[in-house]
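Researcher: Structure for this, please.
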Amino acid sequence: MSLIYVISVWLKIIIISVFIGMTATIVSSADKDDWHCGIRLVFDSDPAGTKANYILSVQLKNSTGRDINGVSIIYKDSEKEIIGNSLLECHVNGSPVKPGSYGECSRVLQSVDGNFVDAFGADKWTEIVNTQLEFLYSVKYCEILGFSY
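Model: Predicted structure, token format:
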């Protein structure tokens, strides 16, 4: 083997190693970014009556190369102070989020059901719903900790 051939092979190995290292750094730093997320208040009903569901959701782009079923997150306020953590379920029309595509990840964080109306009355139920809404509306960012495949 000639010296030029050996040098060219080593250069290729070095270039590939640097590229892989840069790609891993970009992917891991993207995972640590804070993504915008938020709470939706969705009313529903059950046998006990009206129910208020507080749903945390984030829109996700799958750049992992594998189908994503869920995402583990820490949710934060506008000052990026941690409020809590959760595992969100991810899907697009009932299927996992495919590589290279987008999907919603969400979870009901809290539910105030009709039993509260029976126990406390409609005025107190409304007060509880509004108090929780005010607190949970402070959620502005989600940090992704990991994925469920």
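Researcher: Any notable elements?
Model: The two ends are 46 Å apart (CA to CA). Confidence is low (pLDDT under 50) at residues 21-31.
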